[in-house]
Design a protein that fits this description.
By secondary structure, the chain is mainly alpha-helical. It is built from five helices and four strands; from the N terminus they run E-H-H-H-E-H-H-E-E.
């Protein structure tokens, strides 16, 4: 089983890092840390943008909509505690 980490997650981690003590504990070189764990990056594609833009408006956060779109396109489950993701036909973990 491969684990994919979305480029969207990298953005959100870095954007929120300075205000979140838990995120501050993550390695500074996030790109390297993902590979060091044996994970792979999932880039944002034009298809993701199209799918995200066409999704029903159950979830208003544009970055979470990108994650949902990536889950749909890649047919991969998404690991999240955000219950708003349940409104979409995707597999959720956690």
């Amino acid at each position: 089983m491969s684990v994919l980490v979305s480029a969207v997650s990298a953005y959100e981690i870095e954007f929120k890092r300075c205000a979140d003590p838990l995120l501050q504990r993550l390695p500074a070189d996030l790109a390297h840390a993902v590979f060091a764990e044996g994970f792979d990056w999932l880039p944002i594609t034009p298809e993701d943008a199209i799918i995200a833009g066409q999704l029903p408006r159950h979830h208003r956060d544009p970055w979470d909509r990108f994650l949902i779109a990536q889950g749909i396109r890649s047919q991969c489950p998404i690991m999240t505690r955000d219950r708003a993701f349940e409104a979409y036909e995707i597999e959720l973990l956690w």
